[in-house]
Amino acid sequence: MEPIALLRTKFLADASVPSSCTRKFYEILEKYHYREEEEVLQCISTIATSNETPNFSFWKRCKWIKDIVYDEKTRMYTIVSSKGNFSFLPIRSMYEKEYESIKQVGKAKTKTSKKLLNGYDSSSYENFDYNCHFVTYEFSKLHPEDYAVTAICPNSFSGAYWLHSYSVSYNESYVIDISNGFVMSIFDFERLLGPMILDKTKGEDIPFRLEQIRKEKWPFYTTTIHTPLKTLAFYQFDTLSQDEILKRYRNKSL
What we know:
The chain is of the alpha+beta class. The protein has helices at residues 3-12, 19-31, 36-49, 56-59, 91-94, 96-109, 132-142, 186-193, 206-215, 221-224, 228-238, 242-249; strands at residues 65-71, 76-81, 84-90, 147-154, 161-168, 174-177, 182-185, 196-202.
């Protein structure tokens, strides 16, 4: 089990652990500049992907999460946090068929097994949380009118980053983050993840752009093409001039 998962299941999720210990844990995270948004994201993802009734009490032990509200009429959740409110829908509330279709593609693609002691197989394409580029690419085939986006996002601690792919609706009003399991307004999503976009391509244009890159004989094509959205993102960044990079990312911590 991953250390952070072990910490949550064996310490934070244990109601017998005194609240003073939980508060101290978050004080330590603050000391080392842990991003509060990261904990909100974990809360959202856990609720959105749960097959059971979400355990709100667990997340309310986090000092940065003030309340969790569910609207039965809209089926939307709202996380009231120290960083503001974030409303979302679980992905399967809007894209149940697409979710199951992509899962079936993942099952067919999985060839190896590296299960942890808790039964979690980190190498399986069925685990959407570790395969954002794959699931976003597959979603782009099902919804070619939407955009596939790959961005660099701040990670848990200051100065750390991760590469993340997600989809944006054709009218650019909301984000479909399949790997994290939720649909959210683009405004809230950008506040939460702080993405620095490397590439944004409409699903129907992806095959054409990949073919263009292949024909240009970009030197990294053969090593990235197994993950097409990475190919688009890395190519886009690699072909920017230094002035363009500074202009686009000058105010970003990249």
